[in-house]
Structure formats: C-alpha cells, structure tokens
Specification:
The complex is a heterodimer of chains A (171) and B (338). Chain A is elongated and about 95 Å long. Helix content of chain A is 23%, strand content 13%. Chain A has 171 residues and is α+β, with helices and mostly antiparallel strands. In chain A, the strands form two sheets. A three-stranded antiparallel beta sheet of chain A has the order 2-3-5. In chain A, strands 1-4 form a two-stranded antiparallel ribbon. Chain A starts with 17 loop residues before the first helix and ends with a helix. Chain A has a domain at 63-170: Alpha-Beta Plaits (2-Layer Sandwich), CATH 3.30.70.3270. Chain B has 338 residues and is an alpha+beta fold. Among the domains of chain B are: 9-94, Ubiquitin-like (UB roll) (Roll); 229-313, no CATH class. Chain B is 20% helix and 19% strand. In chain B, the strands form four sheets. Chain B has a five-stranded mixed beta sheet, sandwiched between helices. In chain B, strands 13-12-11-14 form a four-stranded antiparallel beta sheet. The chains are: A alpha+beta (171), B alpha+beta (338).
C-alpha cells in the first residue's frame, strides 16, 4: 500500500563493510562536527547575567496599578475574580476612611487582594475585565518557591511601587 | 348580584391573551410572559399608584379597540394604560418602541454616575440590565452630572442620591407600608431629590423594604455595604417564625456567613412579601433560620455564575486521606528546616 505522506523510507539491514567496521572514519566525522561548533556563534544566553528581551505582549506577574497621583486604582469591584477561569483571585473590600484620599482613588478599595499563582494560567482575562485599568500582567516570570502558601501573592507583592510622574515624564 | 367580570381580548406583539377589564397593558403582557414584557423601572405591582414616571415601559398601540380601531397617536406608558377589547399592542416588534426606549435609557443615565464597580447594587440592578440591553455605549451629555453627598438615613440605610432615578417607589413603600412617612421628594424637576427633612432617621419597622424596591443602588443596606459583590454570594431561601411579618426571606451566603437578608423576589424583581427590619438587619445567623432550598436564579443573571443548585457540590477531586496526611507531614518537616 502506498503511504499517505509518500515520504516513508524503507530501511534494509546489510552487513557492515570494511570501512564501517574499523569505526575510525565515523569517529573523525563526528569529532569534526564537534570541532566546527567551537567556532560558531553561541546561541544560548547566560541567563542570570543576561536576560533575553520579553515580547511586547508577554503576560507575566500581575501588578496592581496606581494612578498619576499615586493612589491605588483598584476599587475591588470583583470583575477580575468573576472573569478568572481558574478562580485564582480573591479579594476583600473596605471603605475608604476620611484622610485616606491620597491612598485610594475610589471610596471603596481592596483591603486584601490575593492571587494564587499556582492556579493562575496567565490568560489575561482579568486585565480585560478590569473597568479601572488597575491590573496588568506586565511583570516578569513568577519565581519558583518551596511552599504552596508562598505562591499566594498578596497586595505587598502585587501593588506597584510608588513612582514620581514628573520624573517619568522627563525621562 | 354577582356581576360578570368582563373579559377583553388583546394582542401584544401578535400574541393574543384574554384579560379582565381594567388590566393594564403591562400586566396583560406579564400574563403572557417572556421577552414581550415591557421593562419597568418605576411600576411596582405591590404598590398602589406606582408607575408612569420612568417611561421605560412605552408601547405602541396600533389598534385602539374593536369599536374604535384608530391607533393611539403617541406611544403610551403600558403600566398606566388599561386594555380595551380588541386592542393591538406592539412592543419589541415596533422599531419606534425600541428606539424610544433607547432614548429613555439615555435620559435616565444622564445623571446616573458610572460607579457600578463601587455600587453594591451592581449585579442585581435593573438600570444596569436596561442599559446593557437598550443603552448606547457613549453618553452625549457634556454637562457635569448632578452630585450629592451621600446620606445615612438611620444606621441601617444608606442613601446615594447620585444614583436615584426618581421612581418614587420608596415613597410609596413608606406611605403604604408604614404608619409615618418621613422621607419624600424635595424640590422640582431637575433639582428633585429624595430626602428627609433635616436628615431625619427612618426607623419604622418596615422601612427596610425601601432597599428592596429601589431599582438602582440609591438606597442600599448599610449592614451589607462593601461586604461583598452580589455575584459572589449564594442566595438560599429560608424562613423563620416572625411575629410581625411573613418571615420568608432570601439569605445571601458567602461561605458559612449570612452577609445579607432580603425579601424574596419574583421574576420581575418585585418583592413577593415585604419583610420587617428585624428579619432584614438583625437575624444574620444560620441558626435563626430554617433553610429551604437555593433560590432559583435566571441563567442570564451574573449571580448565577459559578453557582451550584445543590447545597453540597460534588468534590472535583476524590478525597485521599493518606495523601493529605503525607502533605501535612512534609509541610511540617520543611517548616522545621527553615
């Protein structure tokens, strides 16, 4: 029967001839390939010192964004948790007290915001669901760890550090 | 002398139904049910005199009656217009009605803040549904929306006047359910607002029902304020022996905690039986209630997402006790090494 791909190669076993039996030509052939590679460009990257650039649409660790005045954008509406197919996000909301207007943008904020990185599949649906542009998966890889409980990232790891917008504009 | 009740034959979107004389078009449509029921923001079948304010229930009458088949010149509010024999009504089959409804929604949203992420009503808000179905994506309104400070009406009810669409339902509740009404609409026209005189507390025994009848998030439960989103809680029907009301409620669970107690609502989001303040605000333990069964939630509602109809959903992974113990042991060992 004709094979479907037409690329089938039929191998037949034959006894080795003299040159094959002494092995040396095959060994030199192999060694020459190895030697050739000494003079080629190295394709590997020495990872910790040198980091390969991420693609623009890479989705890594989440970060909870701040607005131009440094206030947290998240208002704990729960749409990210609702859209999350892996149910990785949980949150507890709280009411902004008087005098906290410089910390939180809206009158409600997330007092606890946790993402279970073991459950997260980095699909980016939370990003798309967010009405406040508060969550983005713009970090790097989530690092390895030893204990399961250490993969539950709270606000201490997720909220982005404060930045000075005037300095950013100058740069 | 038993007078025979007159029956009228009406057709709504081509579906004919026989109703009693004096029925409104909206109620006739509700007897048919389904998609042809006009939405209603202000009409509430349990409250006398409600309706006629929001204009979302506008329909087109293409044939006035058998005797006078002329169509009505303008779209009519179906909650206030009674049927005539042989009347023909168009609701969703008429492009005029759909267009008018879109304009009404735009009108209602002129002053409504877009704070659904903050609002506790989100997920069970009629205006949200209406806006989703009929609204346009953008607003054409350039002027600043009217804003108010939020007011605590008593220690249990929060009034966000920003969100109010002036449907008057809460006013009717206070008039018809309680002995004294202490809140009402002040001012007129664009300045109209729900308020009490000099921030009076509302402390009548049935006043909590204003929370349930409010179609938007203007009147919300302060004991539930920002506790959780509606769609993360699980509604369960329950009852108790209440001396003042029927005691039939819906408990909204999150895990083992009752976060909120509301009256049971029917498919048109109307309260079946009004409940008293004790049931609503003070009985938030499972031990206070006799549980019945999970509340039926329409499949389209966001509240139905990730909800099971059984009390105990079957475990996804079979329980493996030796593995569990081994995990605990390993955790203890790693903790020790730290």
């Amino acid at each position: 029967m004709q094979s479907l791909s037409n690329r089938k190669k039929v191998l037949e076993q034959k006894p080795m001839n003299f040159w094959e039996r002494i092995y040396l030509p095959a060994i030199f052939k192999g060694l020459s390939i190895t030697l050739k590679h000494f003079f080629k460009k190295i394709p590997t990257v020495k990872y910790p010192e040198e980091v390969r650039p991420y693609s623009k649409n890479f989705r890594g660790q989440h970060s909870l964004k701040r607005d131009e005045e440094g206030r947290e954008r998240c208002t704990a509406c729960g749409l990210c948790a609702l859209s999350c197919p892996a149910e990785a996000i949980t949150m507890t909301s709280a009411e902004r007290a008087k005098g906290e207007e410089h910390l939180y943008r809206e009158e409600k904020y997330a007092s606890v915001y946790e993402i279970n990185m073991l459950r997260c599949i980095f699909c980016g649906l939370c990003e798309e669901a967010c009405p406040k542009e508060a969550i983005y998966l713009d970090g790097s890889h989530v690092t390895a760890d030893y204990l399961r409980k250490d993969f539950i990232y709270g606000k201490d790891k997720l909220v982005e550090p404060r930045f000075d917008i005037t300095k950013l504009a100058k740069d | 002398m038993a007078e025979e009740i007159q029956k009228f034959q009406v057709s709504i979107d081509g579906i004919s139904v026989e109703v009693d004389a004096g029925t409104t078009i909206l109620n006739a449509a509700r007897q048919i049910g389904g998609d042809i029921v006009p939405p209603a923001m202000c009409y509430y079948s349990k409250l006398e005199g409600s309706g006629g304010k929001c204009r979302t229930c506008l329909v087109k009458v293409t044939k006035g009656s058998e005797k006078d088949p002329r169509p009505m010149p303008k779209l009519v509010a179906s909650c206030r217009t009674t049927v005539m024999d042989g009347m023909e009504v168009q609701n969703i089959t008429s492009p005029d009605v759909v267009d008018a409804r879109k304009s009404v929604v735009e009108m209602l949203l002129i002053n409504h803040p877009l704070d659904c992420p903050v609002c506790d009503q989100a997920g069970e808000c009629k205006l949200q549904d209406l806006g989703y179905e009929h609204g346009s994506e953008n607003t054409r309104y350039d002027f600043p929306r009217r804003t108010f400070e939020r007011i605590d009406i008593g220690d249990k009810i929060q009034l966000h006047m920003n969100r109010c669409i002036l449907c008057y339902r809460c006013v009717y509740v206070a008039n018809q359910l309680t002995d004294t009404r202490e809140h009402g609409i002040l001012y007129r026209g664009d300045h109209a607002e729900i308020s009490t005189y000099i921030e009076n507390a509302l402390d009548n025994d049935y006043i909590g029902n204003v929370i349930d009848v409010c179609p938007v998030g203007a009147l919300t439960d302060k004991t539930f304020r920002f506790k959780n989103r509606v769609w993360f809680t699980k509604p369960v029907n329950a009852h108790r022996d209440c001396p003042s009301c029927s005691g039939k409620v819906t408990l909204w669970y999150k895990g083992a905690d009752v976060l909120r107690v509301t009256a049971r609502k029917d498919e048109y989001d109307e309260v079946e039986e009004f409940i008293c303040n004790t049931c609503r605000f003070d009985k938030k333990e499972t031990s206070d209630w006799t549980l019945e069964d999970p509340t039926k939630i329409s499949q389209e509602s966001v509240i139905a997402s990730n909800h099971y109809t059984q009390f105990q959903p079957p475990a996804v992974i079979a329980e493996n006790t030796p593995l569990k113990e081994a995990n605990w042991e390993q955790l203890a060992r790693t903790e020790k090494l730290k």
